[in-house]
Amino acid sequence: MDLPFIEFKLTDEVEGLQAIALVDTPAIGLNYQAFAPHKFEVINEDKRIVMGAAMIPDLPIYRRDERGEYYAIFKKETIKALVQKLFKENKHNVFNEEHNAFKILDGVYIYQSFITDAELGISAPSGFENVADGTWFIAAKVENDEAWAKVKEEGILKGFSVEGVFDLEPYKFKQMNKLNLESVISTLKSVFAETEVEETTEDNFAEATLVDGTIVKWEGELADGTALVVVMPEGEVAAPDGIHELSDGTLIETAGGLVVNIEAAADQEKKKEEEEEMYDNEFTTEMVNELIEKAVAKYAEAFTASLELVKSENETLKAELAKVKDSKEELKNEFSATLNKVGEELEEIAKSEPSTASKPKEFKALSRAERAAQMGAILRANK
Fold first, then answer.
1. How far apart are CA 365 and CA 371, in angstroms?
2. Quick check: 240 and 254 in contact, CB under 8 A?
3. Could you give the C-alpha distances from 40 to 111, 139, 154, 188, 323, in angstroms and in order?
4. Contact 56/192 with Cβ under 8 angstroms?
5. Residue 365 above 50 pLDDT?
6. Is the pTM of this model over 0.70?
7. Which residues touch 190 (CB under 8 Å, ≥6 apart)?
């Protein structure tokens, strides 16, 4: 069967490259594509650096999805535009394992990047001489210990594979000249000569359908802390915060893309029955009156205690005021007695010195005896 060729292109309406993976995984979504890896080489084991082709122009890549079977092709101009957009949007250091959104490889980043260009004298590195002009090469530094073990010791991770969202249109073979065709054939020979057939294994993923028909996926056991993703036409995205109801009635609550609570349909029914039972136990009039009486008695007791305290404080204040009044009377009596005594002493002084004046004199002109007599009279008159 002759399969059609589809050109993958970049336009303003699509996002382009999204990440770089280290293995091959089937594509997911309408135009979201993940491609078979191009083999890389470990060029510096001590520094953990691997180098290889990430994208090769005019290389037919077998695809099978909802459109059927076909070959996908990237032209060199498209590769250049995709790479420029990737770096402009700062997505060039997004690496994952096997195109798995749950397996982001922290500590893996691009160390070098270049596109071969015969006119500029930029050629492919040693060991990759047969690839087409316009091939995008990258060298990545792998500081992630787990990823490096899979590269060097286990040999699981062997190549780069890009993923992204692209526009598709039928490939126009009439635009391919002899040089392009020879380049494709040479590239195919080089790639297939280096490629080993490996048995692929499926990840431990499970999926379910929401009541609105949306597909959600998770890896391993569905429990608190499990990452939940929503399958969209353009790819997989983290589940938004909120409560998601599965078709079987299970409620899954997520926050930050992680499951924070799961409530099975049976648990919901039990909870509903308990709530209904609680509401069935309605309060009778007698129960309400009893509660009111208890509340009134409680507050009356508190009010009475407060009132007694005020009365006690009032009596204490009255007693203090009475003491002050008694003290005032005592002081008044003592003062009067003192005035009387002083007046008497002044009169005694006046008697001891005879008066020599027959007419009133000014106070300053009075003798000591006269002054004493006058003061005594004043004191007695004002006591």
1. 9
2. yes
3. 14, 9, 15, 16, 106
4. no
5. yes
6. no
7. 128, 130, 131
